[in-house]
Write a structure and sequence with these properties.
360 residues; binds fructose -6-phosphate; Glutamine--fructose-6-phosphate aminotransferase [isomerizing]; globular; five-stranded parallel beta sheet; alpha/beta; aminotransferase
């Protein structure tokens, strides 16, 4: 049942090209970027004033990336909340808002409660969900399916990248509804499964990093912009399956506190692909290096200064920025997996965690 893989997590990491292809196929197929079948015809999209994304854990990280997609590509204001925070305050939900619960299982108690609250506040309620007929879908008027297939490993991997695909499709469809379709990006998205296939080939260089990280007690993940949520996700993966304390931080915030922690025993993983913020991120990594902390980079393999400061570099291809988070998370999933295996952890059943959190 694990298809020759040692763990479900590794199998599911490798299923990502297919999971994202299938998600894209089901959501848009040959029809183009028109979400009418899912309850979001172009005239409805045009009438909406804002989006609010609510989720927990890894799905919340997807929401943080989704905010970049929706605001930058579709020009629609987007707010993101932890479902468990949204439900216990008095959130302002402006008229004509779309509130979307992002949830792999569709059964997370806090996410469902946040969606019910949004409904009480007269919002249009939607879901991005991986399980057909789950409660999140039943609560929704707008149902955007991810089609990652069953996810068994407790650590979410292929459901996450599929959520990112669904959010990008939503942003592109919204943009199209406003009469500003980005046809180049729409076409490029169909190539993503090949990019993910390439990203899986980083496993051999990731193994080298894992070997050096396995005895670490702490790790800091740094990223900027659309890669900051991926830093959070990399840190969460490492925490939950290998029990190494890790934090994700926006690289520019490091000097406002966490830099005080750094020394030769505090490895830093920097996300620094070729994008708008390469040089900004690089200068933060140089500050890390100056504190003698080991620097590992997932990023632009053709950047000479980056190669110089990185103790090891896991190369990422050059991609349009919206695809970077989807591809860059793959080596971080592999890294958490490799470290957990080296430390003898139970990868598919980490202690204290359940696959579906149906209690509050
Ligand atoms: C982490 C993980 C959790 C879930 C969270 C939400 O790897 O899997 O953080 O993302 O419990 O679950 P869903 O998406 O089912 O609502």
């Amino acid at each position: 049942e694990r298809g020759g893989y040692k763990h479900f997590m590794l199998k599911e990491i490798h299923e990502q090209p297919g999971a994202c292809a299938q998600t894209l196929q089901v959501l848009v197929g040959e029809r183009g970027f028109d979400l009418t079948p899912w309850g979001l015809p172009p005239e409805l999209l045009r009438s909406l004033s804002s989006v609010h994304l609510v989720a927990c854990g890894t799905s919340w990280h997807a929401a943080l990336v989704g905010k970049f997609y929706l605001e930058t590509l579709a020009g629609v204001p987007c707010r993101v909340d932890y479902a468990s925070e949204f439900r216990y305050r008095e959130p302002l939900v402006p008229p004509s808002s779309l509130v979307v619960g992002i949830t792999q299982s569709g059964e997370t108690a806090d996410t469902l409660a946040a969606m019910r609250l949004a409904k009480d506040k007269q919002a249009l309620v939607g879901s991005i969900c991986n399980v057909r007929g789950a409660m999140a879908e039943r609560l929704s008027e707008v149902k955007l399916p991810t089609s990652a297939g069953p996810e068994i490993g407790v650590a979410s991997t292929k459901a996450f990248t599929s959520q990112l695909v669904a959010l990008l499709v939503l942003a592109l469809a919204w943009r199209r509804a406003r009469g500003e379709a980005d046809e180049a990006l729409e076409r490029r998205l169909f190539h993503l499964p090949y990019d993910l296939q390439q990203a899986l080939h980083t496993d051999s260089s990731v193994e080298g990093v894992a070997g050096e990280l396995q005895h670490a007690r702490n790790a800091l993940y740094l990223g900027r912009g659309v890669l900051y949520p991926i830093a959070l996700e990399g840190a969460l993966k490492l925490k939950e399956i290998s029990y190494v304390h890790a934090e994700g931080y926006p690289a520019g915030e490091m000097k406002h506190g966490p830099i005080a922690l750094l020394d030769e025993d505090f490895p830093v993983i920097g996300l620094c692909p070729a994008f708008e913020l390469t040089e900004k991120t690089l200068s933060n990594l140089e500050e890390v290096r100056a504190r003698k902390a080991p620097v590992y980079v997932v990023g632009d393999g053709e950047h000479p200064r980056l190669r110089e400061i990185a103790q090891r570099l896991v190369p990422l291809p050059r991609l349009p920025w919206p695809l970077l988070p989807i591809v860059a998370v793959v080596p971080l999933q592999l890294l958490a997996y490799r470290v957990a295996v080296l430390r003898g952890c139970d990868v598919d059943q980490p202690r204290n965690l359940a696959k579906s959190v149906t209690v509050e």
